[in-house]
Amino acid sequence: MTDTTIDQVAAAASAAARAFARTSPRERGAALVAVADALDAAASDLIAIAMRETGLGEARLTGEVRRTSWQLRLFADTIVDGAYLDARIDRADPEYVIGPRPDLRRMLEPVGPVLNFAASNFPFAFSVAGGDTAAALAAGCPVVVKAHSGHPELSRATAAVVIDALRGAGMPDGVFQLIEGQQNGVALLKDERIRAGAFTGSTHVGRMLADIAAAREVPIPFYGELGSVNPAYATYVDEALLDGFVTSVSGSAGQLCTKPGFLFVPEDADLASVTGTAGAVAEHRLLNPGIGRAFAQRREDVIGASGVEVLSAGETRTDENGQTYATPTVVTVDVDALVAAGDALLEESFGPLSVIVRYSDLSTLPALHAGLFPGNLTSTVHARPAELEDGSLAELVEVLAETSGRVLFGGWPTGVSVTPAMQHGGPYPATTSDGTSVGTAAITRFLRGVSYQNAPQALLPEPLRDDNPWGVPQSISEAGRSTDWGAFAR
To answer: What ranges in 304-431 are assigned the alpha helix state H?
Structure first.
């Protein structure tokens, strides 16, 4: 792709922005449903390509296509009534207690063209038609997706489905486009016509892109989901808990951003069942040769770290095509050795590997967590019912909430639910900006507030007009109410 083509992509997205922003929520919602229907119709062909390019299984990919199409439908329902616009109207009030108030009307409007860097580990749900794309389109922003090099054929095929569906739904040309290549992605991120960026991937690449977005002459918001080790804390251990842990660590070969990288257990916990459970897991291909090489090296580094005891060594092998296959590696270490090892153990292991940490004093866990894990997508607590009710874990839970986007009680963090109350984001380094990339709140990343003061009705956006042609919810502050301020707080 040439610089001229990149310029054409940016120009097309920019040209589509105003017309797309003017589409009503119902029109845009119908377009999202059309994309969802088209993806479902093409699912069998797309899944076959994905299996070949990523090594992920048919069942996993089938579920991922379903998640992708239904999250598009969820966003359609989210925007169709217009509540997401947060339309507010303050009537003019000459008797306003802190000085005469003009007529003010505020709503959320699209930020403009969005550049979305697709992820490798979710070739549907976090890729071409995934959550970031769905949220930006729902907000009324044209989207340019930078395809991931790990599944280029799938990216092209998916993009063709999306473009055709949007065109059939009457959306403007240029509202969705696909580019390939790292240099092209960087060049477009620097283009002044791109107004926001989204990314899911490694800490190194995500931080590099975030710095580029911040260093522009006009900086733009960049929503990067980076690394996370997702610590879990258990006050007890039994075979069922350990089985669930191994399942979560080994699912999709551990190539999930919410995989529990650490499990803290009492120092006298019996971990014998881990060896058999992990050893029974069949090998799984990693996503691409680069990830395979990185995991093989990371596994060697962890096993070789001081103080590490191997519970299940696991294996890696590389085939004639350079693809790596792996089985789970689980090791154990005490708290002192973990702290002494530093990044040698604390760094994320992207793949089927996790560290079980033995602790001697439950009361030390809050400070330990705060010092070792400053930002994560998730943190998890496993405790007996009485411990959850007696307040003994309150300080730990407070620290987990301060350093995590989602705090779980029981269960495991893999298998993120796409739902309005989901928070899939967390303090840095989990994300560059503490928003969510999953769930309907993700739309807010691609909206900005605009107020109109004393504007004539004919020049107001439809959601702020008195006749409210889109029929959206309006929060109206009538004149004369300011003298009652504070009455409800007394």
So the answer is: 335-341, 343-346, 365-372, 385-389, 394-403
- Known catalytic membership, residue 141: no
DSSP H helices, 96-144, are: 131-139
State CA 405 to chain mean position distance: 11
Q: Tell me, letter by letter, the H, E, C secondary structure of 178-217.
A: EECCHHHHHHHHHCCCCCEEEEECCHHHHHHHHHHHHHCC
Active-site pick, 53, 141, 257, 462: 257
List the structure tokens of 409.
């009680």
211 with 245, same domain: the answer is: no
Domain with 399 in it: what CATH number?
Answer: 3.40.309.10
Predicted confidence (pLDDT) per residue in 39-88, tens digit? 999 999 999 999 999 999 999 999 999 999 999 999 999 999 999 999 99
Same domain for 243 and 158: no
3-class SS of residue 270: coil
At residue 210, the pLDDT reads 97
Nearest to 393 by CA among 376, 405, 410, 414: 410
User: Residue 354, SS3?
Assistant: strand
Q: How many domains does the chain have?
A: 2
Question: Which has the closest alpha carbon to 284: 246, 324, 331, 311?
Answer: 324
Q: Among this protein's residues, is 283 annotated catalytic?
A: no
pLDDT in tens, 2-11: 556 999 999 9
- Angstrom distance (rounded) from CA 373 to CA 402: 11
Catalytic residue selected from 53, 225, 348, 462: 225
pTM for this structure?
0.95
Range of the domain at 126: 3-226+437-447
Q: Is 437 exposed, middle or buried (0-12, 13-18, 19+ CB in 10 A)?
A: buried
Residue 487: predicted pLDDT: 77
- Its sign, for the CA torsion 35, 37, 38, 40, is positive
